[in-house]
Amino acid sequence: MYDRSAKLAAKGVVIEYWLQRSHALFTAVQGVDLEVRTGEFVAIVGPSGCGKTTFLNAVDGLLPIAAGTLTLDGRAITQPGADRAMVFQQPGLLPWRTVLGNVIFGVEAQRTMGRAESIERAKQQIELVGLSGFEDAYPLELSGGMQQRVNLARALLTDPEMLLLDEPFAALDAQTREMMQLELLKIWSKTKKTALFITHDIKEAIYLADRVIVFTRRPGRVKTVVDITLSRPRDLRIKRDPQFLTYEDQIWESIQEELAVPAERLIAGVPAA
Hints:
Oligomer: single chain
Radius of gyration: 19 Å
């Protein structure tokens, strides 16, 4: 049974695309069923190429689905919308714009907010992500972690119903990545945004999420769902907690099972997101 109050609901979702090189239809995601409840933080993990990012792009409305239903608040997702905001792995900041200029760029392009209001609200988001005092700095003057804070502030400025995060910390060094995980949880606890987070890092998924969804090997579908009952708020020391390690073993074993799936199940030589 599906919860009618779910923020996001996917039922039998199939995502396909045409491969020009081989003139064949490729199935990246096959029959995905999942829900994300309002205010929940859900992470998706799985083998490389299992369709995690492909599914996230469909949730953002960037890719059409070939079958099934994909809804946000009961409405079919057919295109991008202001109710969702994507945070990509690369910050994608405009080098000639300041921090403030980059944060307000999206609402300027969409013309959804007056300039005075956008600047005032942008300053609030900049403070929220811990960059007060850097409003006039340019991207080249910022560390990688600071650039991702700008990326997150830009997404939050639109006040989306749902945050979609595609491995936003993957390009950062290990120490900065851990600090950004901690900061993201602080921001999430303040904003109460529903979040769907894609990652290859099992520890990161467990630390951040209320639930971790494991995708099968390509074509991706839901293999298992792990409820993370670790108490909140969480600091980084919780990664040494015995229950945390139990979750890690459980999820890693599930992924290992998929890595052992015979290669005949795959379409040879074709990558998937």
